[in-house]
Predict the 3D structure of the following.
Amino acid sequence: MWYLMLDPNTKCKAPFITFIFLFLSLFLTSSITACSNGNCQVMEACSSATDCAPTLYCSNCPALERKQFLCTRGQATFPTSFVNGLPFNKYSWIMTHNSFSILDAPPLPGVQRLTFYNQEDTVTNQLRNGVRGLMLDMYDFENDIWLCHSFQGQCFNFNAFQPAINTLKEVEAFLAENPTEIVTVVIEDFVHTPKGLINLFINAGLDKYWFPMSDMPKEGEDWPTVTEMVQSNRRLLVFTSDASKEAEEGIAYQWRYMVENEFGDNGIRRGSCPHRKESKPLNSRSASLFLQNYFPTYPVEADSCKEHSAPLVDMVNTCYRAAGNVFPNFIAVNYYMRSDGGGVFDIVDKINGRALCGCNTVTACQVGAPFGSCNNITVPTTSPVTNTAGSFTGYVQFSRSASAVHSPNCALLMTIILYILAMAFKRSL
């Protein structure tokens, strides 16, 4: 599929559109249509997002030499729809790395932003699509607390994104709208304002969902069940990288409660899964949560669909062995929706299936059945969409097109497109 962006002032716009219309008409009336109008399933060819079934979107993956556009998963399965009532630490969830670092996020007025980007849709969108863990970098900036990429440990106007309370209010709105969902926030903490962090969460209205540090397992014991956490409305877990915040503000120091592998390039090196220097060894049993980082040091949007295919599967297996045969509770990634078809969504489904019911995927688990009782699932399946409280259909649109084609030469563009259409027409005969 080609997305064309034409200059409205170009002199060749009218003849170009005429040629395209004639060729498309000939092609569409002569070819065999496989699927459309929301009927296309995972890995079936598509020409627009509306061709794909709900929770799917239309994309390709040139990094894997897959130039054809196919329907791709855009929403996670909700594991508690299949296996409920287990301790929180038995489940696995998708986490977004630098959740706030969003393509096309507006910079400060009069400033050119100079930094990397890690995601391509809003935090609200991420949550609606099944992300349940957010990585947020927080700094003192402009007499407030901001989300920011570090430059030598400081926030400047060229790497700042927005006040942190804006994103936390998105989290609060999501938890209010979805009373059965649990969200985890991991903070890279450079906030030095006294009581600044805890007051930030209170001002965002999140204290009513707070899971108290005093009740968190401290010696590797199981967490309360997801059912208990929902019933008590303790549905927000917050961890900080600053150990002093435990005594000063009652916010859990991350590495007392979870283990974590290396981040950046060291965390994606094949055959190796070292623990982060701040973390206990991955096979430690004194922490009951396991966060697996899986993102390169320098994020490249176009490469993420390749990273989230076989290399991620391989690294999950490597880290599983390094952690003493324990699956991660969180997999932190860049551009979480980019994949070769199923990506992070499929991988987390498989992890939950193995961990929760002994099946190859969580969608094969039988509700209320003994461990190892599996339905026969032969095709990719997405989460059921219901009208019950706390459910949602999710969103798959992006803030920008990642597939736009720009050409400064109208004649060249016409030639290329007409040639491609002619070849497509020839193959369809």
The longest strand covers residues 131-141. Residues 75-364 form a domain with the TIM Barrel fold (CATH 3.20.20).
